[in-house]
Amino acid sequence: MHSIELLLEALVFGALVGCFYAAVSIGLSIAFGLLDVPHIAHAAFLVLAAYMTYLLGTYGFDPLVAALLILVPFFFLGAIVYRFYYEVFEKRGAETGVRGIAFFFGVAFMVQVFLSMTFGLDQRNVSAPYIGSSLGIGEMRIPWRLIVALCVAVGLTVGLRLYLLRTFQGRAIRAVAHDAWALRIIGADPVRTKQWAFGIATAATAIGGALLAIISPIEPSLDRVYIGRTFCVVVLAGLGSMSGTLAAGIILGVTESIVLTMFGASWAPAVALGLLLLVLGIRPQGLFGR
Questions:
Q1: Cα gap 26→160, rounded to integer Å
Q2: 86 neighbors 190 (Cβ within 8 angstroms)
Q3: Cβ atoms of 20 and 153 closer than 8 Å
Q4: Who's near 27: CB < 8 A, 6+ residues apart?
Q5: For residue 172, which of 202, 201, 199, 196 has the smallest C-alpha distance?
Q6: What's the pLDDT tens digit per position in 90-110?
Q7: What pTM value is reported for the model?
Q8: What is the three-state SS of 179-232?
Q9: CB-hemisphere CA count at 13 Å for 253?
Q10: pLDDT, tens digit, for every residue of 111-149?
C-alpha cells in the first residue's frame, strides 16, 4: 500500500517532468499541429540543440545563455529545411505526407550520424549551479533543474500563445494550413508564412534542446526516447494548441510518474503510446482541440 506522501511526491515530480515534456514538444506543436508538416526530425533537432548547448558550455556558457545564443541559427536552419521541403515535396502536392515523412526521417538520420561522428557515442553532460542541487520543501527535495524546466515551459507557452493570438503574423500562422487562399487575399504569402513559422518552431526546439541537456546526460541516439513522447503530447493537446501542449505535457508526466511509482520503471515507457492510442480512439482532435 503506497502512502499519501509517496503519491503526493509522484504528482509533484510528474507535473514538473510534464512541464519539461511540454517545453520539448512545443516546437512540434507548431510544425505538425499548425503547419501540417510531418516533422519526424523534431526529436533529432532537440538532440542537436542539446549538443550545441554542451559545446557552448565547454567555453563557459550557462546552458540557458547557450539556448539564447543558438536561437537565431536554429531559426535559419528551420527556414532552410522547410524551404527545401516545400520546393521538393509540398509544392508538387502529390503524396506529400508519405514522401515528407521519408524526407524528415532522412534528416533525422543525418543529424544522428553527424553527432555520432563529431562527438562520439559517449554520454555528455553540461554543468550549471542549479544542476545537481535541489530545493527542500518539508521532507521533499525538488531538483532545481526541474524548476527551471517549469519556468521555461510556462514562459514559452505564454510567449508563443500571445504571439499567435495578438499579432498579424501569428494569426496568419494559425490560418495558413486551413485557408491559404484567404491569406493571399489579405496580402500574406502562405509559403513565406509557413517558412517563418517553421523557423520559429525550430528556434523553440533549440530552447527545448538546452533543457534536454540540463535534465539528463545526452547521446546521439537520444531522439528515439523523445520522438514518441513529443508526438503524444502534441496529439493529446489538440494539434496546434500552445496552452493545451503545456497541459498535455503535465498529464503525460503525472501519468508516467504514477505508473513508475506503483508498477515500476519497466511500465513507464509504455505510457506515452498508451495515451496516444487512447486519445486517437476516443477523441482524435485531442483533449483541447476543437
A1: 9
A2: no
A3: yes
A4: 42, 45, 201, 202, 203, 204, 205, 208
A5: 196
A6: 777 655 667 788 899 999 999
A7: 0.91
A8: CHHHHHHCCCCHHHHHHHHHHHHHHHHHHHHHHHHHHCCECHHHHHHHHHHHHH
A9: 26
A10: 999 999 999 988 999 988 888 888 887 778 888 999 999
